[in-house]
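TICKET: design request
STATUS: open
ATTACHED STRUCTURE:
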């Protein structure tokens, strides 16, 4: 296996995965709309073994997959709040778009396909830990679209087409395409910039967590595993589970100056799930290792050194909303196909 197509290569996890694959000696085609700009990829753009492909996953053809040995399908309108901006569009991309990529990959003779799903499909759970056999209860549009993609793609698995689904925990840490709309990243930014952080919903909600580098490593482990171990399988990918209040305490303790913490009791977000990662560790022989404290310190140092900053594109919902509003404005003022 030499050539990997990564959809969503300009995203938070996708850019980290593309870099990891390049370092592991693979040729990488990074297919993305690059809504956040290709320049975020930095030195990757100069690598001979990396080819950026500006394309929508809904338009992928077998020709785009010629010579590709495996597909890591991460392209999606990411996270729960973003999915609710335009539910129809979310399903068109996160469900139908990814089913289309899987179909094209199988038709093109690609040997492996790995889908980036989310632990958010569990929605809520009982007191015990949820494993891959637990019944999903997706609450948000994003989670429902992920669930629909899983159900349509997993049956495509065959001896010559290895399909694996990775349900990823809530991700944190520094990435080329940085995000500050994820719980640990956002709390750390607030602590550094404002000296305070907010805990919504009383902080009793459980969240599974994983560092972005460990999330990327999970894809590599699946790609390099014997197909008999991972074909037609679903794996939860994460390091640990913490209540939101516990996350806040961890962030506060990792920052080297006093931080005020405020508990806000009301929150419309009803997601609450505690997830088991035992299957991935047992089958793949590997577990994520970057702790929450290490991730917080990493973000703090990067902010302090000016390596990352709270830019408009680091807030996914606001960025997508701005794009949609800009398109609507352009559509209103266009005359005979001309803007100016």
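STATUS: resolved
RESOLUTION: sequence designed for all positions
ATTACHED SEQUENCE:
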């Amino acid at each position: 296996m030499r050539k990997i197509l990564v959809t969503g290569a300009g995203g938070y996890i996708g850019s980290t995965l593309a870099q990891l694959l390049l370092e592991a000696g693979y040729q990488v085609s990074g297919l993305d709309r690059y809504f956040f700009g290709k320049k975020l990829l930095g030195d990757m753009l100069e690598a001979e073994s990396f080819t950026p492909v500006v394309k929508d996953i809904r338009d992928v053809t077998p020709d785009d997959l010629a010579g590709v040995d495996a597909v890591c399908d991460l392209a999606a309108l990411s996270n729960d709040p973003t999915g609710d901006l335009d539910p129809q569009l979310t399903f068109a991309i996160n469900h139908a778009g990814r089913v289309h990529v899987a179909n094209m990959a199988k038709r093109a003779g690609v040997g492996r396909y790995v889908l980036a799903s989310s632990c958010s499909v569990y929605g809520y759970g009982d007191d015990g830990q949820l494993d891959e056999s637990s019944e999903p209860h997706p609450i948000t549009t994003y989670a429902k679209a992920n669930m629909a993609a899983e159900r349509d793609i997993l049956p495509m698995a065959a001896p010559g087409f290895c399909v694996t689904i990775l349900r990823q925990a809530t991700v944190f840490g520094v990435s080329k395409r940085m995000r500050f709309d994820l719980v640990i990243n956002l709390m750390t930014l607030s602590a550094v910039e404002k000296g305070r952080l907010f805990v919504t919903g009383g902080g009793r909600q459980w969240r599974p967590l994983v560092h972005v580098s460990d999330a990327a490593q999970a894809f590599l482990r699946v790609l390099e595993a014997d197909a008999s171990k991972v074909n037609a399988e679903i794996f939860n990918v994460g390091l640990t589970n913490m209540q939101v209040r516990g996350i806040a305490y961890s962030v506060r303790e990792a920052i080297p100056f006093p931080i005020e913490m405020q508990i806000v009791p009301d929150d419309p977000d009803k997601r609450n799930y505690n997830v088991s990662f035992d299957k991935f560790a047992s089958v793949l022989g590997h577990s994520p290792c970057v702790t929450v404290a290490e991730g917080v310190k990493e973000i703090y140092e990067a902010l302090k050194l000016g390596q990352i900053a709270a830019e408009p594109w680091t807030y996914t919902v606001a960025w997508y909303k701005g794009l949609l509003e800009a398109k609507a404005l352009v559509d209103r003022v266009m005359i005979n196909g001309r803007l100016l």
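CLOSING REMARK: Residues 12 and 73 are 13 Å apart (CA to CA). The chain has one domain: 3-319.
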